Amino acid sequence: MDFLPQLLDFILHVDKHLELFIQSYGLWVYALLVLIIFVETGVVVMPFLPGDSLLFVVGAMCGTGLMHYGWSVGLLLAAAILGNQSNYTIGRFIGPKVFQWEDSRWFNKKAFNQAHAFYEQYGGITLVAARFMPFLRTFAPFVAGVAQMTRARFMLFDVLGGTLWVVGIISVGYFFGNIPWVKLHLDKIIWAMILIPGLVILAGAWKSRRKALA
Questions:
Q1: Would you list the domain boundaries of the chain?
Q2: CA 66, CA 74: separation in Å to the nearest integer?
């Protein structure tokens, strides 16, 4: 039970925890960050790790000289891309193994074909947008794998989405993360980065459900 309060404290005060880690372990902070980003994007059961806020704080630390901007962007971009590839591969492998490619209680061939068609047509924008949505960015590449989205198409949007996400948020943190007002209200900003995308997802799901019932 102690895990959840500790995780929440880490998410809301990730700047203090990272700074302490850097003071204690130096360059090993890059290995820790690569692991967190890879696990959040690459393991479908770990959607609660602090991706957005972590990247923002990393950018802010690069702005103060505690971390190197180029190393941070390069390593975390690689982790984000490889994480999605791992998640996609897991989905692509598990889907046919579990569902046995036949109509059953767990698998409907028609539904699968519809999902595959959706990801071939709209999967690109879904994958790019999901990068900025907590929880959704963990599941989108897995679902793309289950839906058998082609590897080449997935790779294209994986790299595009990962680049916009990592470079974009680290850069925002680099230029704005050390403004006194931002530092003073960082915990509220982190909450906003978690809750606002979540509310957008819930609103979209609610609208979709209303359309389906209409």
A1: 3-213
A2: 16
One pLDDT digit (tens) per residue for the chain, 214 residues: 465 566 566 665 677 778 888 888 889 999 999 998 998 888 776 666 667 888 999 999 999 889 999 999 999 999 999 999 998 998 888 866 655 555 555 455 555 555 556 566 667 788 888 888 777 788 888 888 887 788 898 999 999 999 999 999 999 999 987 888 887 777 777 767 666 665 665 565 566 556 655 5
Q: Are 72 and 58 in contact (CB under 8 A)?
A: yes
CA separation for the pair 29, 210 (Å, rounded): 46
Helices of type H across the chain: 3-12, 14-25, 28-42, 51-64, 69-99, 109-130, 136-146, 151-176, 180-184, 186-213
The model scores a pTM over 0.90: no
